[in-house]
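Amino acid chain:
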Amino acid sequence: MSCMPFANTRQGSAIALVDVNNFYASCERLFRPDLTGRPLVVLSNNDGCVVSRSPEAKALGIKMAVPFYQIKEEFEACGGVWFSSNYTLYGDMSRRVMTLLEQSAPEVEIYSIDEAFIHLEERWAGNLLSYGQQLRARIKQWTGLSVGIGIAPTKTLAKLANHAAKRWPATGGVVDLTAQERCQRLMSITPVEEIWGIGRRLSRKLHDEGITLASDLLTRAPSYWRSRYGVTLERIVRELSGLPCLQLEMPAARQQVLCSRSFGQPVTSPELLNQAMATFIERAAEKLREQQLCARHLTLFVRGNPFREPDAPAAQIALNLPTPTDDTAALLAAARPLLTHLWHADVRYQKGGVMLTDLVARNQCQPDLFTAPVSARRHALMDTLDAIRQQGMGEIHFAAQGLKPQEWMMRQEQRSPCYTTSFADLPVVNAK
């Protein structure tokens, strides 16, 4: 079986994968042009492992997920710069890119914080390669971020095209695989382990069968691969031959809201644990209001360090709320009696979190017969608190969160300013 013509796809239509290059590192460099050309990495929670690398850092041989303490001295000796994760900045820049994509195509599937699939059709986009180039230029102009764009008849091929767009600068950051000949050429030089959905273990098994390139998978019928490795590989092979098996997934109603963090240092007092959990509840409630949702079910959970204290228990406790709510104060009041059941004096807590489930739209909440309905003033108060935070005019917190979150918050020794969401962090331009 060879790479078949894409006859079964809708005429003139394709899927494009838009992926921001080195997203976290690019966001950091966007507001620090003085770092251009220097190796740059971004670290995970508590400044643990490398999670994003600039091209210069990749050239030094720095691997993803390597513990930073192992390379810090050598990296800084090479002029490298490192940052703690700044999720506020990354989230806002992601929102800007995704909003632009939603304005540019009728169907967008946000796949992760830095990549999205979009549906393209020649009848409104015109030449797909030219459209991709225009979209890439628009994202660069409006956000300052560079993206790679892969265009193909299927998601798997779009992933492959995107990989090629970012790997070879001569492509200009956009690769179109809607033509069969170009598809065949790329698959004939692409290692099988670089195909989306084929992991390390499966690639080793394929190598044992003499399958080393993407094109080798098409020498046998999809049914053969299903009999050997299951339906997942069969779908991959069909997608590589141009037959769509994976459709765009439109956003579905959220099933839960989760806020969880590792602590910067072990929490050994009930007061600090209560303050941390109150902070998680506040953030989870804010997420609810962003989505115009209310929750009927509240779950709190904590755990120690399983590596240092293997026998330390992980605790979890849940509560059904009498009335669906998005009110931070109501959730804090409901959680207060639960917190005493989570605490164990002999445990050094490393992580905690809150999960809100059984969600319902705010305008569809059924009030409890024996509970007074939430007043319009409470809704207005919560909306006002959210507006103050979103406009970057300062922070207002509930007393339950305490005054010294640095005693438990995760380590972020090198966190950059929130350039796009806080007035206090706006870059200053000095005219000379």
